[in-house]
Amino acid sequence: MTEVATSDDTANVVPPSCGRAPSGTGTNEPGQISLTEREPRARADVRRGPPRPWIPRAAILIAYARLRSVTLPDERNDKPLGLFRRLLRAGQVPASPTDCEHLRQAPASIEPNTPGRCEDHLPEEGPWVHLRVCLTCGHVGCCDSSRPRHATVHFERTGHPVMQSAEPGESWRWCFVDELLG
Known about the structure:
By secondary structure, the chain is α+β, with helices and mostly antiparallel strands. It is 24% helix and 12% strand.
């Protein structure tokens, strides 16, 4: 229950330093001042559209630490990786576009032919940076950040349109034909 003082009870109260008497809640009778309730403030809702999915802060920090492990030149050389990381930095998760037939028809995952290594990589080609798996045949190739770019070469040779990141914690897919991330 709210305590209410009449204007007679507050006649001897010293007003605040600004020279104004305490204001009421607007719901009291004229001449009454609420001592325990404050007037609720109108909140302007600035958010537009559907609410964003909540992502735990720790997950964002872990993802950001992973992002920093590869330099920005790697992102510039590897278009799907750069796009994926920009989405992560913006707090968004890539989703399969509905307008790409290749991404819609590709399986969710496939067993890689050579898990953990690029099939075509030779020792004299230097180290590979990231691995990609063809979702048509399971071919494992290195990304465009690696000099030989075996995943892209595999697409150019075979025409298999969709590959998936084989890196731990990444499940995004890339359509070479439409150049869309899903």
